[in-house]
TrEMBL record:
Belongs to the otopetrin family. The lineage of its organism: Eukaryota, Metazoa, Chordata, Craniata, Vertebrata. This is Otopetrin-2. Residues 1-28 are annotated as: Disordered. GO terms for cellular component: plasma membrane. One of its GO terms (molecular function) is proton channel activity.
Length: 597
């Protein structure tokens, strides 16, 4: 009976306060309740700006269509410029690439200016994108690309009177493009941009397409140069000039005289530096793609864990992986030098077979060890107690896609070799070694991909889960035998005096407790680090050998006789660049696995 009138009075008071007739306290309580009702999610600050972009997939689709059309146009011009009978010259390709690079340079300047002008342009950054080792590798390749451009400028300047001006303008613009893009990726690789979303997506896709077009042009130019070098060894100069006129594409510089010593140095130098420029374009394309995925993205800092890992090369290791990897690396360099000397200087078939046998034996041993080590690493992962990282990570998704996609190039070459060797007769020792090499190449790529992908999906090492519960119990305890003085850890976490009795600096309690509760590295993690370092160094030498001329696919007659002089070189020229890129990308991924172990 007494509760009902009280309830009615409170209802009347709330009604009157909502109509503006109540007391100030009632108005204040109503205002606070309204504010609380409109802001019940304190942990979702980024959700409001997300509604500004009405159709995210539409902006992405438009930028993808732009990239596809530009890529097809560039691919058409580059492939057409590789043949003499098609009325597309190399300076037409250089003109298109120069225009694309100038547009990209302009857009990068526009991007940097706009993101610096708007304070809320980049509300968050992706900690996984653009790791320091990837950006460091990009700078290394950029330096060699700049040296290559200097050699190109010096080479084309030696006979500028008989060349088109675009042949000299192109390396100058490319050098500026490399400098601007490297600075852009170093500074902005982690950005999650939230201004000019569609313009940013189109600009990033234009940058990606330009890098791929430069990559296609470099691969084609290098393949044509190696084809010319092979023909020059087997035919006279007069016959080579006749072949150029009949149908084999030549660079316009081949029609000019390069008789001076400095001109020859520039000519040979920039072709030796092409592998670095090729890798630079692919590295930049991968980083730009991650930036494109992060446009308009909000990162939940509660689920997006930031792991600040330290790279300790000479700590927590047995040095077994480093020593074995260095042995493989040095031995591979020796094999590469001997192979190049014997193949290029001698025309005897016995010397050629000896060089091929040496090359295949080294690779069989190396690939066999790598396969066994990868299998052992995968077995160790079965006993690893770390959880799988299932958070959204565009960088890791791209790494896995590039590993699986680029491995297809070497798979194709290996399967073509297997079919040619099995179907050909007679079979000699070199054919048996070649068959074993092809089979081990397939096995090694498969096992290494499994090991790397599983390592990338493991969470980095963290402290024991029980540490959080036990750490609180450590406060208030007395620790003896520390600088011969009893230490009392206070609740406030203040420092323990400025100096000790011996004159040393004071010890912070949090640092001391962290050192006591830090987990020890177990044997599984140590073995994984040894495996990662061995695979990293082995992949480096397997990248160096084909990138700098050791290509037995062109020197072994089995595949050439089976598929013909036109089909087999085309297969190798298309697939081998992907295999070379696979090795360098595997090096970057294995470095990440090493640091996360």
């Amino acid at each position: 009976m007494t509760d009902e009138p009280v309830r009615k009075d409170s209802e009347i008071r709330r009604l009157s306060s909502s109509m503006g007739c109540g007391h100030k306290d009632d108005k204040a309580s109503l205002a606070s309740s309204q504010i609380a009702s409109f802001s019940p999610q304190p942990h979702r600050p980024p959700s409001a700006p997300a509604s500004k972009e009405v159709w995210k997939k539409g902006g992405r689709m438009f930028s993808i269509l732009l990239a596809v059309h530009l890529a097809l146009l560039a691919c058409t011009l580059v492939s057409s410029g590789a043949f003499e009978k098609i009325a597309v010259h190399d300076y037409d390709v250089f003109f298109l690439l120069t225009v694309l690079m100038l547009i990209v340079i302009t857009w990068i300047i526009f991007y940097l200016a706009n993101t610096s002008r708007y304070p809320d342009a980049i509300p968050c950054r992706d900690s996984h994108a653009g790791p320091i080792w990837l950006r460091g590798g990009l700078i290394l390749f950029a330096i060699f690309s700049l040296v290559m451009d200097v050699f190109k400028i010096g080479y084309y300047s030696s006979f500028y009177s008989c060349l088109s001006a675009i042949k000299i303008i192109y390396p100058i613009v490319q050098a500026i493009f490399v400098v601007v893009q490297t600075y852009f990726l170093w500074m902005s690789a982690k950005d999650c941009v939230h201004v000019h979303l569609n313009v940013t997506r189109c600009g990033l896709m234009l940058t990606l397409t330009t890098n791929l077009a430069v990559w296609m042009s470099a691969v084609t130019d290098e393949s044509v140069h190696k084809a010319h070098s092979k023909f020059r060894k087997n035919v006279t100069e007069e016959l080579f000039r006749w072949l150029l006129k009949v149908g084999m594409r030549s660079s316009s510089a081949d029609e000019c005289n390069c008789n001076s010593q400095i001109c020859q140095v520039f000519n040979n130098g920039y072709f030796w530096l092409y592998p670095f420029n090729i890798e630079y374009s692919l590295f930049a394309s991968a980083m730009v793609y991650v930036m494109w995925k992060n446009v308009g993205r909000f990162i939940d800092h509660h689920s997006h864990h930031i792991h600040r890992l330290k790279f300790r090369l000479f700590q927590r290791t047995f040095f077994v992986g480093i020593v074995l990897g260095l042995i493989i690396l040095v031995s591979g360099l020796g094999v590469l030098i001997l192979y190049e000397v014997q193949i290029n200087s001698s025309t005897e078939s016995s010397k050629k077979s000896q060089a091929l046998s040496m090359y295949y034996i080294f690779n069989i041993v190396c690939l066999g060890l790598m396969s066994l080590v990868c299998i052992g690493g995968s077995v160790i992962y079965r006993f690893d107690k770390r959880d799988m990282d299932r958070h959204k990570n565009p960088t890791r998704t791209l790494d896995v896609a590039l590993l699986m996609g680029s491995a297809l190039g070497q798979y194709a070459i290996s399967y073509y070799s297997i079919v040619a060797i099995v179907a050909s007769t007679p079979r000699d020792a070199v054919s048996a070694l070649n068959l074993t090499y092809a089979l081990l190449m397939i096995a090694q790529h498969t096992f290494q991909n499994i090991f790397i992908i599983e390592g990338l999906h493991r969470q980095p090492p963290k402290e024991d889960h029980r540490r959080d519960s036990h750490q609180k119990d450590l406060y208030g305890l007395t620790f003896a035998n520390i600088n011969a003085v009893s230490l009392r850890v206070p609740d406030s976490g203040s420092t323990l005096g400025s100096t000790t009795a011996s004159g040393a600096e004071g010890i912070h309690p949090s640092d001391f407790i962290r050192s006591l509760t830090a987990p020890k590295m177990n044997w599984r993690r140590k073995l994984l680090r040894e495996i990662s370092m061995f695979l990293l160094l082995s992949n480096i030498i397997l990248w160096i050998m084909p990138a700098f001329g050791a290509r037995p696919q062109f020197d072994n007659d089995t595949e050439l006789n089976f598929y013909g002089d036109s089909m087999w070189p085309a297969i190798v020229d298309i697939c081998l660049p992907f295999g070379i890129f696979y090795r360098m990308h595997a090096v970057a991924s294995l470095l990440e696995v090493y640091i996360m172990s």
